[in-house]
Amino acid sequence: MESKPKSQGHPKRKKRRPPRRRAKPKPIPSGPRRPDARFAAILAQIGVPEDEPFQPDPFQTEAVDRLKVSDVLVSAPTGSGKTWIAQQAIQQCLDSGGHAWYACPLKALSNAKFEEFGKVFGTERVGIVTGDRKENAQAPLIVGTTEILRNQLYDCMWQKTPLPYELVILDEAHYLGELERGVVWEETLIYVPSSTRLLLLSATIRNTRELVDWLASIRGVECAVVGSDERPVPLYPLFLYPDGQIGMLSGKKGLLRDVERCIEALAKRRGRRRPPPPQYDQVLSRMRRYNLLPAIFFLKSRAECDRAITQFTQRDVDPEEQAAFRRDLDDCLERYPFLKTHRAMPHMVEGRVASHHAGHLPHWKVVVEQMMVKGHLEAIFATSTVAGGVDFPARSVVLVQSDRFDGKEFQDLSATDLQQMIGRAGRRGKDRVGFALIIPGPYQNPKLIHQRLHSPPDAIESQIRINFSMVLNLLQSHRPEEVRVLIDRSLAAFQQARKIEARRKRGARAKSHRVDICEALWQDFLRHKGFLQETGFVDDQDLLTWEGQWAAQLRLDHPLLVAEAIRSGSFEGAAPEIVAAMIAPFVVDGDRGEELERSLTFSSRELTRRLDGMKKDLKGLSRRMKKSGFEISEIPAWPALAAFLWAKGVSWEALLSAVPLEEGAMSMMIMRTADHLNQIIGLRRSHPELAETAAEAIPLIFREPVWF
User: Fold this and answer.
1) DSSP 3-state of 192
2) Theoretical Cys-Cys bridge with 359: which of 144, 196, 579, 662, CB 3.0 to 4.6 Å?
């Protein structure tokens, strides 16, 4: 009997697992569950101090008294009143018939001090000299950049004439330790004659005693340290919780437990998804409720500053305040009418906020500063550059990150960086207390902020280095053996000697591989001198040739390349707009603007021919420099095209359309081009035709909205 096939039946079904429930995200950490009595007591202190006659602090009067008999280094927190010391010193100098130079690290700060001192001492007694501005240069008080003062010292050494100033004031003297520009401060301090009194104004620094010992050793004049660690307005660090509550950041033992819990919870959530950007309008609304305004927000980029102000809409403002704001704004726009259509103007008028950074026109930044100083703005959004010199304190400073961009990469804030930024919090004479509000985020480390708040300030280390402009100018007035003496007088040499002595006292052996800084600087000087001899700028007797003498007058970033272009005839017969265009590439870094190069759509046959010819003329020198280990930069086309179009008279809008660059960066490039053209005007004796053409080029590029 045939057997029946077995039934296949239904395939066995796998048991369906119940769907995995996603873990419910923990609620956003809230603020403190209990009222903070300490925070409430601090908030109760908010207000304007009683209007009392100004009484200088003891350190201020001490500095003025000490300056009568010695040099003085003042080290005190930002906003503590160092400018008052400078004004008293200047007044004493002018009253005795003397002359004074006030040196600033930034042109913007020079312009601001020029205006301020004109009101204090009278406009006829104050002049200004920067790379692109020269007014009333024979006045008894000159305000200018430290680079210009250094250049004047070069001229005095070369011409063997005394420095015509009885008093030199170096503002923001902690720039001595700045990586890129510290060498200018160090050179200036080495060259200023001991017959000139020195007043250095600095944010708090750690090694003040070392610095004054160095100055006394090289100048043969006593230098006194006058300092203060106390802020004129007490500062309190705060923390913004995600639910909008604000509380204290820390106590005596460190971060508050509520803050730590919030940071931990936010870090876990951050691993799952990218946090949204801060809603600055909501932050400002919350700060308004706590009476913490006006405020300066320090953000990580220019673009973020510009985006932040777009979050704000029309605010209801008291009619009297609205009238005062409109009146002051109209006064500014009367001076700078081209700013009426500035793209950020609606945000200022409607939201009472503004962004402030190097990407803006200098004139726009002046308007923002004036509106902030007059109390019309609730907040400005700025990059960390605002911390260094621009004077508009606020009741609060807001930090959204604990790092800053140093030009190459983001680095943790140093103690000095943080002190400079929070130094703007708390307005002397307008506030009883100031605040630093910490907003949590992916680039924020509240623990680091707390540590830096209680860390001593950074020490200044020498940043001196050898460059071609320095070597040319020193050989103009010194024999090489005398230059060796100047190197031995450097802060670098002094600090090295101190370290060796400290090791000797500890009984420690000096490491055999330790580099002798003085010897390294000397060998680098010889290397630069040797190259100048190979290229015909210095002769076998270590004296400047005729070409070296006029090349020494080019106090530029790339003096040899510009000098080679001149002596090769690259500029011969060129029209003023072409000369301006050919100079412009030397004022920017060659590795910048690759995207700009690709985006250029306009070209000029004459300009292209001239640029190609100059590159060909410089090819030999560039190859030799590279072979000898010297850094060289490429010659980009976009600055040349921008300067050419601007000199030809195109509108500002058309220029930015043809060369899409931030207007502040474009303005700075054009102003630096004018500065370089001014250097070429100084070659009237050696190159009269080129100097005359450079003089004709300057008014072509120095027009609204670039001129200052």
Assistant:
1) coil
2) 662
Q: How far is CA 327 from CA 87, 316, 330, 333, 607, in A?
A: 30, 18, 5, 10, 46
Stated pTM of the model: 0.88
User: What's the rounded Cα separation, in Å, for the pair 105 and 149?
Assistant: 11
Read off the tokens for 125: 């007694």
The encoded tokens of residue 202 equal 């600095």
Conformational region of residue 409, where left means phi above 0, alpha means psi within -120 to 50, and beta covers everything else:
beta
> What string of DSSP letters covers 455-511?
SPPPPP-------HHHHHHHHTT--HHHHHHHHHTSHHHHHHHHHHHHHHHHTPPPP
**251-288, pLDDT tens digit by residue?**
888 999 999 999 988 887 766 566 677 899 999 999 99
Q: Decide if 632 contacts 561 (C-beta within 8 A).
A: yes
DSSP 233: S
Give yes or no for a contact between 74 and 205, defined as CB atoms under 8 angstroms apart. no
For the domain made up of 58-227, the CATH class stated in words is: alpha beta
Would you tell me how many other CB atoms lie within 10 Å of the CB of residue 142? 25
The CATH homologous superfamily for domain 235-453 is P-loop containing nucleotide triphosphate hydrolases (3.40.50.300)
> Do the domains at 58-227 and 235-453 have one common CATH topology?
yes
A 10 A CB-CB count for 461 gives: 13
Q: How many Cβ atoms sit within 10 Å of the Cβ of residue 332? A: 18
Select from 116, 158, 165 the least CA-distant residue to 137. Answer: 165
Fill in the amino acid letter for 59.
F
Q: Which amino acid is at 289?
A: R
- Rounded Cα–Cα distance for residues 115 and 101 (Å): 15
Measure the CA–CA gap between 398 and 425, rounded to whole angstroms: 9
Task: Report the alpha-carbon distance of residue 243 to residue 378 in Å, rounded.
Answer: 22
pLDDT surpasses 60 at 639: yes
Tell me if 182 sits within 8 A of 463, measured CB to CB.
yes
Q: How confident is the model at residue 149 (pLDDT cuts 50, 70, 90)?
A: very high
Segment 197-205 shows an average pLDDT of 94
Rounded (to 5) percent helix, strand, coil in the chain:
50, 10, 40
Element (H, E) at 167: strand 167-170
In whole angstroms, give the CA distance from residue 86 to residue 391.
15
CA–CA distance, 240 with 39 (Å, rounded to integer): 13
- Of 91-105, 143-157, 505-519, 538-552, which gets the smallest average pLDDT? 505-519
Tokens 């200023």 sit at which residue? 192
Return the closest-CA partner of residue 423 out of 400, 455, 451, 391: 391
For residue 549, what are its two tokens? 């003498």
Strand order in the sheet with 71-75: 134-135, 126-129, 141-145, 100-104, 167-170, 197-202, 71-75, 223-227
Protein fold of 553-708: Sec63 N-terminal domain-like fold (1.10.3380)
β-strands 403-405, 410-412 pairing: antiparallel
- Tell which residue, 401, 402, 394, 404, has the closest CA to residue 353: 394
Order across the sheet with 379-382: list the strands: 246-248, 235-240, 434-438, 396-399, 295-298, 379-382, 353-356
